[in-house]
Design brief:
Elements: H1 8-122
Length: about 120
């Protein structure tokens, strides 16, 4: 063999070694790509979970506000019912007083009419 001649198996071994190196780089690239995709999926899942948590917090806040509003409205309704009951009581008392005044006025009118009758009968007209 001369110094510049290559062993026929050397080219095959070199090709095998190059194929092995290429396979290694492809596998490493795929593994890196898979890790990046997994990290992106986890990040997207975290964002989705955060959005869901924010929506639940908003719903919880709205429910709390609604509950407080209903509680306030119920309190106002009770106050109005008490006010209405008091007004009815006052109206009843006023009606009784009005009725008593009306009866008193009717009695006075009857007395005046009786006096007038007695004056006509007695001839003092």
């Amino acid at each position: 063999m001369s110094g510049f001649e290559m062993d026929p198996n050397f080219f095959g071994q070199l090709t095998s070694l190059a194929s092995l190196g290429l396979a290694f780089f492809v596998a490493a690239g795929n593994r890196r790509k898979d890790r990046l995709a997994e990290a992106e999926r986890i990040r997207a899942q975290g964002i989705s979970q955060e959005n869901t948590d924010n929506k639940l917090t908003n719903v919880e806040d709205m429910a709390r506000e609604t509950r407080d509003t209903v509680r306030d409205m119920s309190k106002q309704l009770n106050e109005h019912q008490v006010g209405i009951a008091q007004t009815h009581i006052q109206m009843g008392e006023l009606e009784k007083r009005q009725s008593a005044r009306s009866n008193e006025l009717e009695r006075r009118i009857e007395r005046v009419e009786q006096r007038c009758e007695s004056c006509r009968i007695g001839g003092t007209e």
